[in-house]
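To the structural biology subgroup,

Please find below the input and predicted structure for HNH endonuclease, which we are adding to the shared reference set this quarter. The sequence is reproduced verbatim from the submission form. If anyone notices a discrepancy with their own records, reply to this email rather than editing the shared folder directly, so we keep one authoritative version.
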Amino acid sequence: MRIGIRSRTWKVFNKEASLKRESTNKLIDKSFPAVPHSEHKHVNVTGNKSPYDGDIIYWSTRNSELYNGETSKALKRQNHTCGYCGLRFTSEERVHLHHKDGNHSNCKTKNLLAVHESCHDYIHMGKRDKP
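Predicted structure (tokenized):
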């Protein structure tokens, strides 16, 4: 029988003279919080695919599943291409969600654009105050 880390830790903590059963349980719950099932997502690679096989379309589509919410919707809407430069997303660079009007409270579909991290930096480069 395999004993989990939570059980082993409980045994160690419970041996402490100053800890009682309730305080041990509270300490364990704080140390090992419950993780929702959605956090355990894993997307299997199809067939013999490899990040080095040159199939940028497959990998950009697959990587968009790692993003959730508005970023994923923007990626699908833009056919997995950058809204600024038009190039496909690869695993080398993170995807940023750009708010066209600069208002981060405005999450309407028309205001959101999925862009490369470098493109996002370039977009905001001209908007910085110069010293």
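Summary notes: Helices lie at 5-15, 21-31, 56-64, 70-77, 117-125. The chain has two domains: 5-33, 56-125.

Regards,
Lab coordination
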